[in-house]
Design brief:
alpha+beta
């Protein structure tokens, strides 16, 4: 693909899911290529602990744009020494789609990111965006599941999607005394957690299995966890 030309990327369920993933745990560069080359760096990156999920995300991205980049491994040197996996690539068209059309802040986005307004165009887009967000930034919250963010606007938009999908939940906020910073969260009511997990097109099998065990959902209709359980048995 010619990096100098922007090819149209349309908002659909696949790109809504990718948007949710990038909002959750991704990064859209706001940098230049180098000190000597001040042209825009169109890097997009995501780093997670779930290798299989990131490989599936890589395949999804490659169904939309052309890139030779692949998932790579690194060791977290901040103390845990655990393996982390990252996928970074450069593509002007997808960078433009995410930063200009979806309005994902380039650079540091933790406190300013929101649910893109265009996601609210349809329930299907909301469902796929929310799936991407949970697959990366969602997880266990108390006895149930939910979301945590430094962005009040992101939590407010996520809460609106959940209301539109008729999934009952609680919105919370608290002060992190260590960093003296306000955080915001959503806790899905446990009785609604099964509806949430069954209804959304989740792709992160490792996280889904943990959520399945945590909330004790007896039956599955999305096919992912039930397939995993049969395989393990």
């Amino acid at each position: 693909m010619n990096i100098g030309k922007i090819y149209p990327i349309h908002l659909n369920k696949e790109t809504a899911y990718i948007t949710g993933v990038i909002v959750g745990d991704g990064h859209v560069s706001n940098s230049c290529k180098s000190k000597s080359d001040q042209s825009r760096d169109y890097k997009i990156a995501i780093e997670v602990v779930d290798y299989l999920f990131l490989k599936e995300f890589e395949n999804l991205v490659k169904s939309i744009i052309r890139t030779k980049s692949t998932v790579k491994e690194r060791i977290d040197k901040r103390g845990s020494r655990k393996k982390l996996y990252y996928f970074q690539f450069r593509n002007k068209s997808l960078h433009y789609f995410l930063s200009n059309k979806m309005k994902i802040p380039a650079g540091n986005k933790c406190s300013s990111v929101i649910v893109p307004k265009r996601i609210f165009d349809s329930l299907e887009l909301q469902k796929y965006f929310l799936a991407g967000l949970f697959d990366t930034d969602g997880g266990i919250r108390g006895k149930s599941i939910g979301f945590t963010s430094a962005s009040n606007s992101l939590i407010a938009g996520t809460s609106q999607i959940l209301r539109n999908l008729k999934i009952k939940h609680k919105v919370e906020c608290w002060l992190n005394k260590k960093y003296n910073k306000q955080y915001y969260g959503i806790r899905i009511y446990k009785r609604d957690s099964d509806s949430f997990l069954k209804y959304l097109p989740l792709r992160n099998k490792e996280k889904l299995e943990k959520a399945f065990r945590h909330v004790g959902v007896p039956e599955w209709s999305n096919g992912i966890v039930s397939l995993m359980v049969k395989t393990k048995n």
